[in-house]
């Protein structure tokens, strides 16, 4: 999660960021929190977290994300930033057939942009690493 902030954090080193990099960062932050369904497979950490009973971990992760915004001097928009706790409750009650790319947990078909494909692959790489 920190890496999605640190790419943009040092304006001296990264004075120009392409629109592709901005899209990648946006996708990365959202998908790190909510995960997604791509080509009928689930990706992301929340698929593991949905089994927990103690929600204090998820609240702590929400606070951690909010603090990352402060640390890297980014504006935290409460209504635009996805939350682990909301994702958890969404996962408990979701119907896969009603998901699409605009729902809280996005569902993508086989045709997606290169930036999104890279972000989804990074989710897979994170989980495969552990």
Topology:
Layout: H1 2-9, H2 19-34, E1 36-38, E2 41-43, H3 46-49, H4 56-71, H5 84-93, E3 107-108, H6 114-129
Structure keywords:
130 residues; mainly alpha; 3-stranded mixed β-sheet; 6 helices; globular
Word description of this protein:
The chain is mainly alpha-helical and 130 residues long. It has one domain (18-129). It is 54% helix and 6% strand. It has 6 helices and 3 strands; from the N terminus they run ααββαααβα. The protein has a 3-stranded mixed β-sheet with strand order 2-1-3, with helices on one face. A hairpin with a 2-residue loop joins strand 1 (36-38) and strand 2 (41-43).
Beta strands, count? 3
Main beta sheet strand tally, sense and closure:
3 strands, mixed
Helix content: 40-55%
- The overall number of domains is 1
Summarize the structure.
Helix content is 54%, strand content 6%. It is mainly alpha-helical.
């Amino acid at each position: 999660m920190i890496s999605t902030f640190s790419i943009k954090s040092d304006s001296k080193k990264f004075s120009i960021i392409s629109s592709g990099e901005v899209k990648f960062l946006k996708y990365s932050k959202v998908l790190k929190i909510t995960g997604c369904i791509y080509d009928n497979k689930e990706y992301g950490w929340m698929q593991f977290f949905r089994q927990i009973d103690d929600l204090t971990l998820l609240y702590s992760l929400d606070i951690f994300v909010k603090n990352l915004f402060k640390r890297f001097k980014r504006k935290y928009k409460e209504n635009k930033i996805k939350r682990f706790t909301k994702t958890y409750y969404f996962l408990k009650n979701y119907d896969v057939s009603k998901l699409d790319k605009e729902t809280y947990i996005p569902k993508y078909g086989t045709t997606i942009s290169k930036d999104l494909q890279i972000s989804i692959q990074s989710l897979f790489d994170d989980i495969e690493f552990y």
